[in-house]
Write a structure and sequence with these properties.
Layout: H1 8-11, H2 13-28, E1 30-31, H3 41-47, E2 58-59, E3 62-63, H4 69-86, E4 90-92, H5 98-109, E5 115-118, H6 135-139, E6 141-144, H7 156-166, E7 170-173, H8 184-194, E8 197-201, H9 206-210, E9 223-227, E10 238-242, H10 247-258, H11 264-277, H12 280-302, E11 306-307, E12 316-320, H13 328-337, E13 340-341, E14 343-345, E15 359-363, H14 365-369, H15 374-389, H16 394-408
Parallel strand pairs: 1-13, 5-6, 5-7, 7-8, 8-9
Antiparallel strand pairs: 2-3, 4-10, 9-10, 11-12, 12-15, 14-15
Helix pairs in contact: 3-11, 4-11, 5-10, 7-8, 12-15
The structure holds D-serine.
Amino acid sequence: MHHFTRSIAEQDPTIHALLEKELHRLGTTLQLIPSENFASKAVLAATGSIASNKYAEGYPGRRYYEGNEYIDQMEQLAIDRAKLLFGAEYANVQPLSGGPANMCVYEAFLQEGETVLSMDLAQGGHLTHGAMVNFSGKKYRFVHYPVDPVTHRIDMHTVREVALREKPRMIVCGASAYPRLIDFSAFRAIADEVGAYLFADVSHISGLIVAGVHPNPLPFADVVTTTTHKTLRGPRGALILSRQEFAKALDSAVFPRIQAGPHQNMIVAKAVAFHEAMQPEFRQYAEQVVANAKVLAEALTEKGYTLTTGGTDNHLMVVNVAAKGMTGSEAASTLAKTGMVTNKNMIPYDTASPFVTSGVRLGTPAMTSRGMQEADMQHIATWMDRALSARDRADALLAIRQEIEEHLASFPIYDSYA
Ligand code: DSN
């Protein structure tokens, strides 16, 4: 029996019902997790396209399977667009996600046990920047540059001191919970002084970079990775950018050393997303993401909240809720009851465990995609303050939830789940 043309509803009513519920959840709640976004219908359609069916181990023009004449053209387009978008000599669009992309970079540049200098996960870095529960922390000797204990900003004097002391083979810059600009040229100067490679993981900020609202690491870093589904607003996945001199090492690290069959549907969707990111509208979008974050940060500060580093220059902020007498976990679950979807997050020098935390991380990329502007951020700050102040009162939380749902009715996003 062939059922190729049936819809999900006809083929699998159980999954259909859950996707309908997810569509309703997205439509009626505020998505404030800074690593999430809404990809366009064109990007989503590409992820569900026939390119999903093809095996294409290898690279365009050098495959281990026949039948790749069109797949090759699509992957080459994704590569060429990525290079143009970021101003890079080399791009590899096959990494399945950020973790694998970073694994490929370490594989290409390092020997097991070599020293790498990065930001600690607990201070805003990432699992793959040397956390001991991750392959990176087990396979390489990671040391960390601490943020300033008072300002919570990266202090380039401290980075230099630790680099001179530890003599790393590689320095990693880039973070998943750091609200300020990253000074790639200062990192480059330190890497040159100690003879280290410079690796920038710009997963969170790549959409801001291509729109020109955050400095570009490309003239400075030897290698750059980014996921494609955060501020860049593409499909889930990642890419690696570098100079031609590292092309061979990176290509062979991705395939055949770390990955096998690439996901061609996601590569096609990356090509569509890169095309979208080249349009003038994308620049306006990224400018609005940053403007919205600034307003949200200022409004929360006015209401007496403490933000790590005192504010934001990019798309995210981390609110120290312990200063208001609650844990990150309590705050995030309270906000979720009102339809404000966030995540608990460690603050620098946190004494609470990673499962409890003292902070909540917020970001504006998704709600800006939905069309929200500065005035909406003021509303969000007010709803948050009301929710956190009334966290034991179910009726008050329900009233906020209803106001949010009514407000969201003016910001349609998807008309269907596929
Ligand atoms: N999960 C990403 C984030 O939320 O920042 C990092 O991997």
